[in-house]
Design goal:
Helix 8 crosses helix 10 and helix 12 runs parallel beside helix 13. Strands 6, 10, 11, 14, 15, 16, 17, 18 and 19 form a nine-stranded mixed β-sheet that branches. This protein has a five-stranded mixed beta barrel with strand order 1-2-3-5-4. It has 16 helices and 19 strands. By secondary structure, the protein is of the alpha+beta class. It starts with 10 loop residues before the first helix and ends in a 17-residue tail after the last helix.
Length: 500
């Protein structure tokens, strides 16, 4: 009798039966939770090497393999059985006969359940129906699964449960496992690319004593030994720029960022970014770098794929990325030319006429320009687009444009209406930087909870001289979402923060 084919049993009953099998394994002198097993082959390699061979060719080759993995399906027919075994990247059928592996090992196999981890050695063959199979000659029990896996065809139906019990999601959801593996490969490709350009990867502190480097609300924690509060970093920017002052001319960090803000399909309070800074570079340097980086990921991780589907859009990553200024885009969409508007009151009235909310800390035309962009234009940037020439009011760490001090030398990269990267020709004038920080403090006093503090040590560092610099921050999670066609950031973070 195969207990795996009794769906009427409750989870508690199935668990009780599995616990009884644990005792039976112990009676046979077998550790239910196993010992070291030498895995010699990976299932995907077996499939890649032998799937194209005929039944007769495999018989002639007489290939043996040793694999380990989890039992996903089991069909027990008395003295023979078929199972499907899955390791990290592959899934293959195994064929077990009592007269081949012996009576005692077969009795151990009979105590197995779906979800158990086993190791097998056997001949690579094909069945009469042409399915690649391993005919087992040696069977090793490795780990007993005390709980039944979710039913094969329905998996974890509750989306929240998928994220809370990621270990189960990875077992039963092929796409979840592929996404986790792709994330690692994407990050490695980014590192390889940056390293090839002479950038140095570093680590900077997660605990800071000032809220700087971005516009965001921080998490606050308390250090007992020092008896003072610290913030979890909202960006890595200022510490990386300190390294430029110190003579490390090309530097980057891939790390966790923490922002005490809302959660939705594109935002998580903890997420991963890469921030990168290039001495003697500028905005154009960053454009070339990020466009090449994304195209390299498509080429080297996704085998040269050019068109990707994300959020129901077909995105061509191979074409040159578009470039458009914020003012021109707003004019094209709304008909309003903010270059011609010099009065905040005039800009404010235009916003109110459109039903837009003007916040108390808004003080410049640039605040209203950005409001128009976010409301009417952001969603229109579907194909990869560099949005340039942001207003100075929302860019406290950026150099102004040579031809118009109302705007700064900055871009945001948008794909499918979503921001992926933010880059500057970095402000390295300590006098102007202090003035910008003071303006941020004024906004904070007027209710802007995302405005930053003054980092006096950073200003002092700038006073020693930081080279003209190009800098960029890019969201790793969103890059992975795009390349794996994931609709939620929780799909690409293995253990996302969840409500209780």
């Amino acid at each position: 009798m195969d207990l795996n084919n009794q769906p009427t049993l409750t989870i508690q009953e199935q668990t009780r039966i599995r616990m009884e099998k644990v005792e039976k394994l112990k009676e046979k002198g077998i550790d239910p939770f196993g010992k070291r097993f030498e895995v010699k082959d990976k299932i995907n390699d077996i499939i890649a090497n032998y799937a194209s061979c005929s039944k007769e060719e495999l018989e002639e080759k007489n290939i043996y393999a040793t694999i380990a993995g989890r039992i996903i399906t089991k069909r027990d027919m008395g003295k023979i059985a078929f199972c499907n075994l899955k390791d990290m990247e592959g899934n293959i059928q195994i064929y077990i006969r009592k007269d081949v592996i012996g009576e005692e090992p077969y009795s151990v196999f009979k105590l197995s359940d779906i979800g158990d981890l086993i190791g097998v050695t056997g001949q690579v063959m094909k069945t009469n129906t042409g399915e690649l199979t391993i005919k087992v000659s040696e069977y090793t029990h490795l780990t007993k699964s005390l709980r039944p896996l979710p039913e094969k065809y329905h998996g974890l139906q509750d989306v929240e449960e998928r994220y809370r019990k990621r270990y189960l999601d990875l077992i039963v959801n092929e796409q979840a496992r592929k996404t986790a593996i792709y994330r690692s490969k994407i990050v490695r490709e980014i590192q390889n690319y940056c390293d090839s350009l002479g950038f140095i990867e570093v680590e900077t502190p997660c605990l800071t004593n000032a809220v700087t480097g971005a516009a965001a609300r921080p998490f606050i924690t308390h250090h007992n030994a020092l008896d003072r509060d610290y913030y979890l970093r909202i960006a890595t920017e200022l510490n990386l720029k300190r390294l430029l002052v110190g003579g490390i001319e090309r530097v980057y960090e891939i790390g966790r960022i923490f922002r005490n803000e809302g959660m939705d399909s594109k935002h998580s309070p903890e997420f991963t970014t890469i921030e990168l800074y290039q001495s003697y570079g500028d905005l154009r340097s960053m454009m070339e770098l990020v466009e090449t980086c994304l195209k390299r990921i498509a080429k080297n991780v996704f085998n040269g794929q050019e068109v990707f589907t994300w959020n129901d859009f077909e995105i061509n990553i191979a074409k040159p990325f578009a470039v458009v200024s914020m003012v021109d885009l707003v004019k094209d969409i709304t008909g309003i030319d903010f270059n011609a508007i010099t009065s905040f009151e005039e800009a404010k009235k235009l916003a109110e006429d459109k039903g837009l909310k003007v916040l108390p800390h808004f003080s410049g035309v640039g605040h209203i320009l950005n409001l128009f962009f976010e409301e009417f234009c952001e969603k229109t940037l579907v194909q990869p687009t560099f949005l340039i020439r942001h207003p100075i009011e929302i860019s406290p760490l950026t150099k102004v444009c040579d031809d118009d001090p109302r705007y700064v030398d900055r871009f945001e990269l948008y794909i499918a209406g979503c921001e992926f990267a933010n880059a500057y020709s970095e402000l390295n004038d300590p006098i102007e930087q202090r003035r910008r920080f003071v303006e941020q403090l004024k906004e904070k006093s007027l209710g802007n909870e995302e405005a930053g503090d003054i980092d006096n040590d950073f200003i002092e560092a700038l006073e020693y001289g930081m080279p003209p610099t190009g800098g960029i921050g890019m969201g790793i999670d969103r890059v992975v979402m795009f390349f794996t066609n994931s609709s939620s950031i929780r799909d690409v973070i293995l253990f996302p923060l969840m409500k209780d």
